[in-house]
Design a protein that fits this description.
globular
């Protein structure tokens, strides 16, 4: 299989062109568009082919690093494995936020559990959308109350919100943030990075 032919792009296409081609095809063949449709199986197979091609190109352009974990939708009760979510966490850790969100969006709503909301919360956090991140972390913790990682993320986000409120700031950030505010935000970011396998502040 020539992954470039599958996506309809040339081998010398830019990363942005490849991403745009992938998004257009994923939008066209996503399984959610073919619910109760007689060609649903064909669309699912095509979606898997598109995902495989995109991941193969990404792998080749990164020098062979494994960043797989694309989704083709579920069939016959198939659920998404922990290995798939591990791939999403890797994408977040690498800073590939757009790709991580694409992978998460392709998971059917019926299969979105605590891990889905935790990963989406991490995506929102990396984008700086703190309110949405906090909502996702709370939902993750509510779905899996015994998960310490999810509970810790909720606690850190709530601590950050209290710091801003007590100092009269805006949770989304304002021009009057003090050095203490910045430190609190950095510590929160470091904790979340460690959850994703990274380390923003090595000494902590």
């Amino acid at each position: 299989m020539d992954p470039y032919k599958v996506l309809g792009v040339s081998p010398d296409a830019t990363d942005d062109q490849i991403k745009q081609a992938y998004r257009a095809l994923a939008k066209k063949y996503h399984p959610d568009n073919y619910v109760n449709n007689p060609v649903a199986d064909l669309a699912a197979e095509k979606m898997k082919e598109i995902n495989a091609a995109y991941d193969q190109i990404q792998k080749m352009r990164r020098g062979g690093s494994d960043a797989s974990g694309a989704y083709g939708g579920s069939r016959d009760g198939e659920t998404h494995s922990s290995a798939s979510y591990s791939a999403i966490r890797n994408q977040i850790s690498y800073g590939n936020i757009d790709r991580a969100e694409e992978m998460l969006r392709q998971i059917p709503e019926a299969q979105r559990g605590g891990e889905w909301y935790f990963c989406m919360g991490s995506v929102y956090y990396r984008r700086g959308w703190m309110d949405r991140a906090a909502e996702c972390f709370r939902e993750a913790s509510a779905r899996e109350p015994g998960n310490r990682e999810y509970a810790a993320a909720c606690s850190r986000m709530d601590s950050g919100r209290r710091v801003y409120r007590e100092r009269g700031g805006n949770y989304r950030g304002d021009s009057g943030a003090s050095a203490c505010d910045c430190c609190s935000s950095l510590l929160c970011a470091d904790c979340l990075c460690e959850c994703m396998g990274g380390d923003l502040i090595p000494c902590c």
